[in-house]
Design brief:
The chain folds into 2 domains: 217 residues, 3-Layer(aba) Sandwich (D-Maltodextrin-Binding Protein, domain 2); 148 residues, 3-Layer(aba) Sandwich (D-Maltodextrin-Binding Protein, domain 2). 41% of the residues lie in helices and 15% in strands. The longest helix has 20 residues. The protein is globular, with a radius of gyration of 21 Å. InterPro entries: Bact_solute-bd_prot1, SBP, TAT_signal. Keywords: Sugar transport, Transport. This is Multiple sugar transport system substrate-binding protein.
């Protein structure tokens, strides 16, 4: 579960994207207490290494049982699974600081985890299959040319829509942000809103809108990448969308839950692929999917490709044994990787070869989502810190909800981001 919950509808899949990973909490958290998740003796059965594997609390039925089953199946170490409800980020950060935490854990990489020697590089175990991962899934776990994590699941966020409602209105799936605004207006009636992007009015679209303009949170040489006129134009379009009276606001659940579109409150919804089974059950072949549309002819469509990654703690007493377990579970055991991704929640297996053959991903909106993610997916930059994320979020709030001048708000956020980059890289 998250380090913080800005609102009750925030999904676990969004938590570390919004908080910027675990590293900020690690800088302030006190060392944790006694429950390390390891066997009391500190050793495994039959003289084998004892490993502790930590997960946050998944909402999907069957995930905990699956994790326990995988651990039991592993023959070369005794693996105990700690399923962590509540504030997972703080508990994990405390454990990593104290050395009383896990040997293996799931998270999302932040550069401070590397600089503070919390994680070890995994280049040796991933080398033979690197080409089977999407470039973004490698980049989001790479610092200074070293790979520190193995992606477990991919959670793309896109716009799902009712094909019949668009057809009835004579609307094609939008190709530009202006098209999206026009479509949302056209689809809005006295009973149905055109689009749902969150009860906050669309802060989740801050990344996709930026990418659609050709921008980035950070450039390849680690400079602010959201400061040009095209980025300002894209943020201004989010304000225009907010003012259009076509957005659903005040929904019973937030954008991470499919309730709004399933209940017929909206014709289109920005949401993650995790919700696809519920939407397909409700709509069948009437469900369509599209990336966030490009800003204009010079822009590009965008898909936020989030997910979870497996790491090995640098403070583990059994680093090599932990790496061997990660290789077994998240590289060698492709059957378990597919099981984890598709039989409880609904995600894309990070391995390209698995996604290409998984039966549940071969048709309809599922296949389309996979293709959109491959074509337009954007992943998190590990150099993007929590402080940068806060400044960026404040910028979006002021532009979208308060109508502030985009250029002025960008300048404020740029100042904070530049100071953070100076701190990190000199």
């Amino acid at each position: 579960m998250p380090a913080s919950l800005p609102n009750p509808g925030l999904s676990r899949r969004d938590l570390l994207k919004r908080t910027g990973g675990l590293a900020a909490v690690a800088a302030f958290a006190a060392a944790c207490g006694g429950n390390t998740g390891r066997p009391p003796s500190g050793g495994g059965e039959g003289g084998k290494a004892a490993l502790s594997q930590w997960y946050h609390l998944y909402g999907e039925t069957g995930t905990k049982e699956a994790a326990l089953r995988y651990a039991k199946e592993y023959a070369d170490a005794t693996v105990s699974v700690q399923w962590t409800p509540g504030d997972y980020a703080t508990k994990l950060s405390s454990g990593l600081l104290s050395g009383k935490g896990p040997d293996v854990f799931e998270s999302q990489l932040n550069i401070a985890m590397v600089k503070s020697n919390q994680v070890v590089a995994l280049d040796d175990i991933i080398a033979d299959v690197k080409d089977d991962f999407q470039p973004g899934d490698l980049a989001t776990n790479t610092v200074d040319g070293k790979v520190y994590g193995v992606r477990m699941i991919v959670d793309p966020q896109v716009i799902y829509y009712r094909k019949s409602l668009l057809d009835k209105a004579g609307i094609k799936p939008p190709e530009t942000i202006d098209d999206l605004i026009a479509a949302a207006k056209e689809l809005t009636t006295d009973k149905v809103k055109g689009l749902f992007v969150g009860n906050d009015g669309g802060l989740a679209l801050g990344g996709p809108a930026l990418w659609s303009s050709g921008g980035a949170y950070l450039t390849e040489d680690n400079k602010p990448g959201f400061t040009d006129a095209r980025a300002a134009q894209a943020f201004g379009k989010l304000r225009e969308l907010y003012e259009s009276k076509s957005l659903l606001l005040g929904a019973p659940t937030d954008w991470t839950d499919p309730g709004a579109i399933v209940q017929g409150l909206t014709a289109m919804q920005w949401i993650g692929m995790w919700a696809l089974p519920a939407m397909q059950k409700a709509f069948g072949d009437d469900l369509g999917v599209m990336a966030f549309p490009k800003l204009d002819a010079q822009g590009t469509a965008a898909v936020y490709s989030g997910g979870w990654t497996q790491f090995v703690s640098a403070k583990s007493a059994n680093v090599e044994a932990a790496k061997k377990f990660v290789k077994w579970l998240w590289i060698d055991k492709t059957d378990l990787q597919e099981d984890w991704a598709l039989n409880y929640g609904f995600h894309i297996p990070p391995r390209k070869s698995l996604a290409a053959k998984a039966a549940k991903l071969q048709s309809g909106a599922a296949a389309d989502t996979v293709k959109l993610t491959q074509d337009y997916g954007k992943t998190d930059n590990p150099a993007w810190t929590p402080k940068m994320g806060t400044a960026y979020g404040d910028m979006l709030t002021n532009i979208i909800r308060k109508g502030a001048d985009p250029a002025a708000e960008i300048a404020k956020a740029e100042k904070t981001v530049s100071a953070e980059l100076q701190r990190l890289f000199g």
